[in-house]
Amino acid sequence: MKSVLILVALLLATLSPAMAGEKLRASDKAALAECLKYVGDFRGDVPGVNDTPTPAIHIDNAIKFAGHEPASCINYVTELCSFESDDGRSQLGLIDCANREVSVWENRLNTTYAALMAKAARKARDGYRNMQRAWIAYRDARCKAEASAETINSDRQSNIIVSCELDATARQALILDDELSDISP
To answer: Looking at the structure, do residues 98 and 120 belong to the same domain, yes or no?
Structure first.
């Protein structure tokens, strides 16, 4: 069991877009945790949510709730980082900031995955392991395909890849968070 977890962790680290040397920063990890706590504490008191649905009310309610979904924290660390330095809003600065955020989400994903594997029943662990391996292949193929459309500007291509990897990694971490919360006592 330990060897499988180590293998998966090594595989995730090897495929990591953040492996370019960016270390996980405690401040970035704390910023993401703060954002997720904020959306997690939302009680759902939004005026108009109980109105009879019409297309306009449905869209209005979706917009009201969007800021209170955990996925609304995606890009939060990148945005904070972009204000830290003069070059934070340049294309290369944004790539660096996004790589920092990828590191935070990967850390969350790996931590949650390890907890999920420790708590899940044996048969479920096999399913989660297969899901995670398939997801890694999907993420890599998806991001490579998205970046392949940009054939002239290599900085822009790097931006597309890191943005894709950030979004995919964050969303997968949130999926694993949900899975873990479903089996936690």
So the answer is: yes
